[in-house]
Each structure stands twice: as structure tokens, then as C-alpha cells.
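The instructor's notes for this session suggest beginning with a concrete chain rather than abstract definitions. Hand out the sequence below and ask the class to guess, before any prediction is shown, which regions might be ordered.
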Amino acid sequence: MNKFLHLVAALGLGLSASSCLVLAGAGAGYLISQEVTGDTHQAQVLRDVDSVWAQAQETVAGHAKDGIEVTDYPRRIEAVVDGADVEVEVQAYDLNRTIIKVKATRYLSRDSEIASWMLNEIIDDLGEDN
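After discussion, reveal the predicted structure:
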């Protein structure tokens, strides 16, 4: 019931804001919102920053052929995924609330398809931990 109340509250906030609310993850109780601003795809999840950071590293490493480059502060992962340079940032937003930002570029232009796919892979992997 508590997750349902969080969903209703998030839905109300999401509809009043200019963000795009994705109900698939919200129904599972971990995704609050997902949006695209400029060349960055981002999502806000109901998880602590440390677990999201660990999962993001694992997910990106699983798709990067040449490994990943990790910076702990700020929490940033850089890798080449399917020929695109991918950058993932994980930021603490609040207690048990984290923001994931993904950018991807290929041939000096943004690759929105890879960025969206990589963000969704991280979110899907977070959902499997439930």
C-alpha cells in the first residue's frame, strides 16, 4: 500500500511538472521519472545512491567491450558501447532517491538511441534487484 501512495504522489508531481513520467518502472516501485534534456537522458529512482552506483558500473561494464573508466567523485562512468562514447553520472538527490544521467556521442554528434537504451538497461537491472 505504501508503494501505491508513493506512486500516486509521484504521478501527481510528474503530471504537474514538465517531466515525462514512465509508469512501467513506477509500478515496480523504483522509477519516479524519466526525461530528456538537451543531449542527456536522465531518470530519478527510489534507491540509495550507493546501490545505484554499483549497479550502473556493473551494467555499463557488461556492455563495454574495452572496460570502463570510473571516477568516484563525481560518480561518473565512461565507456565505449556499440561504437558510441557513453558517459553515465549517478547523483544523490535525497535520502533513497538518486538521479541517473546518460549521454552518448558517436562521430562528434549525440547518439540519443544509445543513451536511451543504456539508461533503460540500468533501470531494468535495478528492477531485477527488487
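Then share the key points. The two ends are 16 Å apart (CA to CA). The domain at 2-128 is CATH 3.30.310 (TATA-Binding Protein).
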